[in-house]
Amino acid sequence: MTRNDVSSIHFFVLSDWGFSGSDNQRKVAREMAQVSKLVGLNFILTCGDNFQIAGVASVNDSLWFDNFENVYNDSALLVPWHPALGNHDHYGNPQAQVDYSKINKNWQMPALYYTFVEKINASCFARFIVLDTEGLIENYQGLTDTTKIDSILQYNWLKKVLAESKEQWVFVTGHHPVYSASAYHGDTYEMKKLIKPLFDKYKVDFYICGHDHDFEHAKDANEYTDYIVTGTGGAPRPVSGNTHTIYSISTLGFTYVSLSSVNAKLHFISSDGLVDYTYIKSKLKRTRR
Q1: Could you give the CA distance from residue 116 to residue 163 in angstroms, rounded to a whole number?
Q2: Structure confidence by residue, pLDDT tens digits, 76-103
Q3: DSSP assignment, residue 77?
């Protein structure tokens, strides 16, 4: 990690973090602030379960203060947050999390699912796609004929965004894993059946999620996309491994990514300041589809 490396953009990914300002949540927040001051943070992504146990009721819910504003209030964390929704967020009022973007300028969630682009340098950009995986799973299960997946609006939208993307890097975030070795939830059937083929076809660089409360890096042999679980923002659970697993650990923390035109450097950082795992993905130029 280098201080204020202007040749790269720097972002954190946090998931399953919303525990009403618990001690564990605050431990992670303090370490996030320390690392942000070191590297010069650009933004934060979340992968859902922003509010355990039942989301928020409205933009005026006291949880906005107890769980967000009064926890991640160090000046080093007052950067744009780009949240995804988790299953627990859907137990409340998910639209309230969208609407909160009008109240707090750092909470930048324009829709239940959305995309944005970040500039790395004058000729290199990264696309970020934020999914509402709960919606994908519910809509997929409702199909009597799964060949009609194009009837799912979010699926169609995702396919269009990926097909039209020309950026050097493509990151997708959402709540539910494609691959997970945890005995608590594990792989998500619908994500493997519905979404993974799009990642394969359009060479998505990373899919980063939560839902299982651990750190995991998984990958299919001879395939391109890296699959990251980072559901460690407030309450870790035991983890295991399987044939897809490259690395896994159960500990409090968050993921830090430093992204240049040629390298994506990913670090699993625990709340005690240890860099538990580092992975570097390199490429000179994005493969044309």
Answers
A1: 15
A2: 999 999 999 999 999 999 999 999 999 9
A3: G
The Cα 190–Cα 187 span in angstroms is: 9
**What's this model's pTM, rounded to 2 decimal places?**
0.95
Q: Can you name the CATH fold of 9-282?
A: Purple Acid Phosphatase; chain A, domain 2 (3.60.21)
Question: In sequence order, which residues have a C-beta less than 8 Å from that of residue 200 and are 6 or more positions away?
Answer: 223, 224, 225
Q: Are 84 and 176 in contact (CB under 8 A)?
A: no
What is the C-alpha separation between 228 and 221, in angstroms, rounded?
15
The domain spans of the chain are 9-282
What is the average pLDDT score of the chain?
94
- Cβ atoms of 109 and 132 closer than 8 Å: no
The span from the CA of 110 to the CA of 130, in Å, is: 11
CA dist 174 and 270 (Å) reads 21
Q: How far apart are CA 5 and CA 212, in angstroms?
A: 32
* Helix, strand or coil, per DSSP, at residue 193: helix
CA distance 268 to 258: 12
Q: pLDDT at position 283, please?
A: 87
| DSSP structural state of residue 129 | E
Report d(CA 261, CA 121) in Å as an integer.
8
Q: 199-215, pLDDT tens digit by residue?
A: 999 999 999 999 999 99
Alpha carbons 153 and 104: distance in angstroms, whole number: 28
